[in-house]
Amino acid sequence: MRIVDIIKKKRNGNKLNKNEIDFFINGYINGEIYDYQASALLMAILLKGMDNEETTNLTFAIRDSGEKLDFSKIDGVRVDKHSTGGVGDKTSLIVAPIVASLGVKVAKMSGRGLGHTGGTVDKLESITGYKTELSNEEFIKQVNDIGISIVGQSANLAPADKKLYALRDVTGTVESLPLVVSSIMGKKLCADDDVIVLDIKCGSGAICKTVDESKELASLMVDIGKKAGKKMLALITDMDKPLGYAIGNSLEVVEAIETLKGNGPKDLTEICVILASNMLYLAGKGSLKECETAVRKSISDGSALNKLVELVDRQGGDKNLILNPNNFEKAKYKCEIYAESNGYITSIDTEGYGNASLMLGAGRNSLKDKIDYTAGIILNKKTGDSVNKGDLIATLYSNTNSFENAKNLFINSTVISDVKPGEKPLVLDIVK
Ligand code: URA
Asked: For residue 113, how far is its CA from the centre of ligand 1 (angstroms)?
């Protein structure tokens, strides 16, 4: 078999078989296939696509490229949730403790921020002392002891994705459905969960901009998860505006804590209730209605918040920050943005908000960049809100006193006009 023939086959729009896909993945991680050859094949896949069988084979080849986690020593049902990435998406910090407080195990591996989207691992590291690296034994013991652990992905899981993702990032081959699906599911399936609930973000802040695209992504991911023996469900949720009002690491942790206290923004609270209820339902904890009642109770009686405190404490974090979120360090500088006319916030370019937050220091431009955990944006107004000239729309926070670029991007990403936009549902579709 020769890689050049496989490249030509895909370039000509033909279907690759399992042996050819395995040959590519194995050869690429062994260094026998070079970056320039892998780039050519990735571009051919982006342009010519892959059918379901090819995408499934690619996903399994990525999953099988490294270590897999054995959760058989964890007692009880294990559930996970995965978001395809959004702006202000702090749902894992809320949903995971809720579900764990109700007796279902959450052994969660999360990612770091990617491009304009934030990542759970970065958010957790904004809590002083929180360790996102545990040995497999520590991880499993903690899940058995307190029902929950959230860590970063270990280096040995799906190494083919690490190499391929870095290559896609610099060869214009990120936005390809089969490549996105195999990248996400190839990693997810390395963990030994029984249930996976997917949160497929859709809109101006997401990889998928339309509901049709999101549904195609969701169906493929659900299908592949089921083939791997998992119980699967995907919610397609709105990302035409940020979730909640906080964007940026410690700012989002504070909003997550408020949500676990029952004081969270309505959109964020409702999405978390829906995600957690579905996770519990698939884990066999009762009807969807019963699960929803249990979720709301875990927020109102404080058990979900207590679970977050326990998680942070056990992973070496300062639990007093969770108990007194006012003590989170604040950025040195801030810049307030006011409405320049009367009307409504007609639309938001959510990716622009994510990039503005990145410019303030909340994300990375390259892997080596250090994050400013205090940087980010607190919104006062979102799509659909009425504004009067001079109203505060948002406050930008940073430790570098240079707001010009982020401010301009934020303003250019906010459309104020006379048009009041229609209400959009939070959940746009469900794929089972
Ligand atoms: N997240 C991933 O892990 N991979 C992608 O391709 C896109 C988002």
From this structure: 11
For residue range 5-53, list pLDDT tens digits in order.
999 999 999 999 999 999 999 999 999 999 999 999 999 999 999 999 9
SS3 at position 149: strand
Query: What is the signed CA dihedral for 119, 121, 123, 127, rounded to 10 degrees?
Result: 180
Please report, for the chain, the start and end positions of each structural domain, with discontinuous segments joined by +.
Answer: 3-49, 78-325, 329-417
Distance, CA of 163 to CA of 152 (rounded, Å): 17
Which atom of ligand 1 is nearest to 187's Cα?
A: 3
180 three-class SS: helix
Active-site annotation, residues: 82, 161, 168, 183, 187
DSSP secondary-structure letter at 114? Answer: B
Q: For residues 264, 291, 148 and 432, what is the CA-based torsion angle, rounded to 10 degrees?
A: -100
Domain 329-417 coded CATH 3.20.20.80: no
Q: Is the CB of 235 under 6 A from ligand 1?
A: no
Query: Which residue CA neighbors atom 2 of ligand 1 most closely?
Result: 184
Which of 45, 83, 84 should be mutated for ligand 1, with most atoms under 8 A from CB?
84
Residue 367 clears pLDDT 70, i.e. is over it: no
pLDDT tens by residue, 293-336: 999 999 999 999 999 999 999 999 999 999 999 999 999 999 99
CA 38 to ligand 1 center in whole angstroms: 17
User: Does residue 183 have its Cβ closer than 6 Å to ligand 1?
Assistant: yes
| Count of helices and strands (H, E) across the chain | 17, 13
Q: Fold for domain 78-325?
A: Pyrimidine Nucleoside Phosphorylase; Chain A, domain 2 (3.40.1030)
What is the 180 CA–ligand 1 centroid distance (Å)? 5
